[in-house]
Amino acid sequence: MLKxxxxxxxxxESQVLFGVTLEVGAxxxxxLLGRNGMGKSTTVAAIMGILxxxxxxxxFDGRPIQRLPPYRxxxxxxxxxxxxxxxxxxxxxxxxxxxxxxxxxxRSAPWTVAKxxxxxxLLAPRLDRLAGVLSGGEQQMLAIGRALMTNPxxxxxxxxxxxxxxxxxxxxxxxxxxxxxxGHAVLVIDKNIRTLIRIADRHYILExxxxxxSGTSAELEAQPELHVRYLGV
Length: 233
Ligand SMILES: Nc1ncnc2c1ncn2[C@@H]1O[C@H](COP(=O)(O)OP(=O)(O)O)[C@@H](O)[C@H]1O
Ligand SMILES: [Mg+2]
Known about the structure:
The chain contains 9 helices and 10 strands. With 233 residues, the protein is α/β, with parallel strands linked by helices. Strands 6-7-8-3-9-10 form a 6-stranded mixed beta sheet, with helices on both faces. The longest helix is centred in the C-terminal third of the chain and has 16 residues. The site of magnesium ion has 5 residues, from α1. Magnesium ion (MG) binds next to α1.
């Protein structure tokens, strides 16, 4: 579904990605791992067209997207839950959900506010509150719900469980497993390697802007030296 090859990107003079290559198949949960500052969020920014890549190819559903502007990439079916959530604080929960909603892929059963509330029941009593007053966990659920309302076929989550209580984290993981069962693909960036080994199908490790290892959950579990060397755990 998503094929990234030889991706290079820079902030001004400083090159951060040096040839990132990765794939996400339909109905796959794929993890992008690596310590802070290794280029995970930059990879996501390049895929979404926020930081247009200098070299490399990004193919989504057989179509090159690396030169498209962000809104067209989103329209092609990629949804981002950005690092730090970035919900609209001065809009209500309901307004956040509908502000960017679109049934881009022309789905027969698109996401609706009701469906998002079914996925995250905690949001239901807060529909008319301003997003800015929600707890961190509630804002994260809202950020995921907002991305789902654009009806993406590939959802990208950048540090979605960062700083959240264990119970809320579990909710987010449960949501990903459910998305996978309903035919979505997910690219997930997270530090919870134990959980990722349990729920992701495959993993890539990014080190200073290069993919240095990729493999299945079983392979990652069998190589604890990788965790120490590249992930600092
Ligand atoms: N907006 C920016 N301008 C300049 N440098 C940046 C910017 N964002 C990130 N960087 C640098 O790019 C590198 C990769 O950052 P990032 O992709 O955010 O890493 P990760 O998400 O893996 O923690 C880091 O050295 C970081 O300091
Ligand atoms: Mg990051």
